[in-house]
């Protein structure tokens, strides 16, 4: 009974942790101090820009440029324009939108220069794109970014003359292939004269109209830049895993062009309410003012730190980092992850020396842990296939994200609650079932699930020789996590926090259960579980928004990291109707997605591009 109470308390605290981290700040009104960012002031620009769509060459596009030119002059900027030539491929894409043959359309970058005290120093560039896709008002993508940049520039002006020049670049034709950014930075053509003057960039984007403004991308050699982020941003939303994942994914924004030129910077974007992405529904009404405030607060903090600094941060080794509760950012050299592994290993070793479990028993528990993970990967893969989201249009998958994320959460919960059933099952059946199923799924689809086949085969073979004693499952789970975290540290050290932080907490709890009285050990375990699972829930939400609809089995990595924290708190027996109800609810939502494949967003970009994903 005590374990059940501790589990419920830990999960409740973890959920509160995740909610606190994921909720944007309260938007500030027009009466906010002049030196601060105000979402209400920024919203006036969002509404003015988003009355009509702004695809390149349209009347709305021309009105948007005229409006922004006037706004930049009102702020005191030296305003200029840069022509953005479009090649035949881009014109053909534009023709798909307009329904006519486009022959003589030219884009227009808008540039606002605010001179600083020393024009010889590298400038700060605030960047967003002013065009939208055909048929979409683009209130989030990217009127939100444009409006945030204008409000940041206004606040900087109030704070005094900056140490270096500040440039506002509103690029054109981003939606057609980053043409404005390519023209400015000289990708395939001579760059704009100001391009060589840029020393750091803050880019503002959107793939959704709500949620936290995630700082998901930096330039290479980001150690000093991330220390600046940690010092100046009061409400952070970032982690180094996101930076790594984005580098590995075939996505892009305007900052991608500058990053290839070696210019350091930060990239901010919102992801929630993705149903409005490239959609007629992307009106100011769907944009969360709190998200605008979040983007603006982070952008202003970074811009002020860079614009008034005597020197820009020097390039240094990439850092490992993540925010805690959305209230602080922990940053350290990626190599320091080895120190976390050493401390975790010492704690696990102390617990092992105290308890001295039998190796064969721990090995059997490892089979059980592997079987749970394999079942989870199978469940998530099968349910996703039933939902049809894997084959659906990219924009339909985005619209279904909240439902798909709920399905993943229900399946993971059901899996853990089914552990008592695993205890009473022949371990060979526990391992063989998902192993064989995953093998067939992998062979038939040729998908990423093939990567787990060796694990499936290993678990299947081990099940014939080792006892499935779940009493040592927490120890087995933390040993497996230690091995995985070590492999990650050796290959992709900036991804270390995802596994190393829960590992450290799990090791503290394991040592506590070995050396402390039962009551104190249970309290310590629940506390560690609350912190570790809360952090993982936050990461799971952002990861799922990024790639979960296409690869939901990635949630198993989060479950893997959480198992050393949760397994010691699971009750001895669970009524079967609870996991059964979770599985049934997940199936009902899955069928809802399947039977409602056309997203209400009616994504206009998708209609023109044949359903292909075109940018991140």
Automatic annotation (TrEMBL):
Superkingdom in the source lineage:
Bacteria
Q: Which UniProt keywords apply?
A: Membrane, Signal, Transmembrane, Transmembrane helix
* Any one GO BP annotation for this protein: proteolysis
Q: Which InterPro entries match?
A: M28_fam, Peptidase_M28
Q: Which residues cross the membrane?
A: 330-353, 365-386, 406-423, 435-467, 522-544, 551-571, 577-595
User: What is the annotated signal peptide range for this record?
Assistant: 1-21
Specify whether GTP-binding is a keyword of the entry.
no
Question: Which GO terms label this protein's molecular function in UniProt?
Answer: metalloexopeptidase activity
Residues covered by the Peptidase M28 domain:
109-302
* Protein name per Swiss-Prot or TrEMBL: Peptidase M28
What phylogenetic lineage does the species belong to?
Bacteria, Pseudomonadati, Pseudomonadota, Alphaproteobacteria, Sphingomonadales
């Amino acid at each position: 009974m005590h374990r059940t109470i501790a589990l419920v308390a830990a999960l409740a605290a973890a959920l509160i942790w995740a909610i606190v981290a994921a909720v944007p700040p309260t938007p500030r009104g027009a009466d906010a101090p002049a030196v601060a960012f105000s979402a209400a002031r920024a919203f006036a620009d969002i509404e003015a820009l988003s009355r009509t769509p702004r695809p390149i060459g349209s009347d709305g596009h021309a009105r948007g440029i005229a409006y922004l030119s006037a706004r930049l002059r009102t702020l005191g900027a030296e305003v200029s324009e840069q022509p953005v030539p479009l090649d035949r491929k881009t014109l053909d894409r534009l023709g798909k939108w307009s329904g006519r043959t486009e022959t003589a359309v030219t884009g227009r970058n808008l540039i606002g220069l605010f001179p600083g005290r020393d024009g010889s120093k590298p400038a700060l560039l605030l960047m967003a794109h002013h065009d939208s896709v055909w048929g979409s008002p683009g209130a989030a993508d990217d009127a939100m970014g444009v409006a945030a940049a204008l409000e940041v520039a206004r606040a900087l002006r109030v704070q005094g003359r900056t140490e270096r020049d500040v440039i506002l670049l509103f690029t054109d034709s981003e939606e057609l292939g980053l043409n404005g950014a390519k023209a400015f930075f000289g990708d395939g053509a001579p760059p704009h004269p100001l391009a060589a003057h840029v020393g750091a960039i803050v880019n503002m984007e959107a793939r959704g109209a709500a949620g936290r403004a995630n700082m998901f991308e930096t330039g290479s050699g980001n150690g000093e830049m991330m220390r600046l982020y940690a010092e100046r941003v009061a409400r952070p939303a970032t982690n180094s895993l996101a930076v790594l994942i984005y580098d590995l994914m075939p996505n892009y924004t305007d900052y991608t062009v500058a990053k290839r030129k070696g210019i350091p910077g930060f990239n901010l974007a919102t992801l929630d309410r993705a149903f409005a992405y490239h959609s007629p529904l992307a009106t100011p009404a769907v944009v969360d003012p709190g998200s605008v405030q979040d983007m603006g607060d982070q952008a202003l903090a970074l811009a002020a730190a860079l614009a008034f600094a005597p020197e820009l941060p020097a390039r240094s080794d990439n850092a490992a980092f993540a925010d805690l509760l959305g209230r602080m950012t922990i940053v350290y050299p990626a190599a320091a992850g080895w120190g976390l592994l050493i401390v975790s290993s010492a704690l696990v070793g102390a617990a092992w020396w105290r308890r001295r479990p039998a190796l064969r028993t721990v090995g059997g528990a490892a089979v059980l842990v592997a079987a749970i993970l394999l079942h989870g990967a199978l469940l998530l893969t099968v349910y996703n296939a039933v939902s049809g989201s894997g084959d659906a249009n990219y924009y339909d998958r985005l619209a279904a994200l909240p439902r798909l994320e709920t399905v993943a959460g229900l399946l993971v919960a059901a899996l853990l609650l089914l552990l008592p059933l695993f205890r009473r099952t022949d371990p060979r059946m526990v391992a063989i079932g998902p192993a064989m199923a995953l093998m067939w799924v992998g062979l038939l689809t040729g998908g990423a699930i093939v990567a787990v086949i060796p694990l499936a085969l290993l678990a299947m073979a081990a099940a014939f020789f080792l006892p499935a004693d779940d009493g040592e499952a927490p120890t087995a789970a933390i040993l497996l996590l230690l091995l995985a975290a070590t492999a990650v540290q050796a290959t992709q050290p900036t991804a270390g926090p995802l596994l190393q932080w829960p590992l450290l907490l799990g090791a503290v709890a394991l040592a506590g259960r070995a050396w402390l009285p039962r009551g104190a050990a249970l309290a310590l375990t629940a506390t560690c579980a609350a912190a570790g699972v809360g952090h993982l829930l936050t990461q799971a939400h952002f990861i799922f928004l990024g790639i979960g609809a296409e690869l939901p089995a990635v949630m198993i990595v989060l479950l893997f990291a959480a198992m050393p924290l949760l397994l010691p708190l699971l009750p001895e027996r669970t009524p079967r109707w609870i996991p059964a109800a979770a599985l049934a609810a997940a199936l009902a939502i899955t069928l809802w997605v399947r039977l409602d494949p056309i997203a209400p967003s009616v994504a206009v970009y998708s209609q023109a591009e044949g359903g292909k994903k075109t940018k991140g």
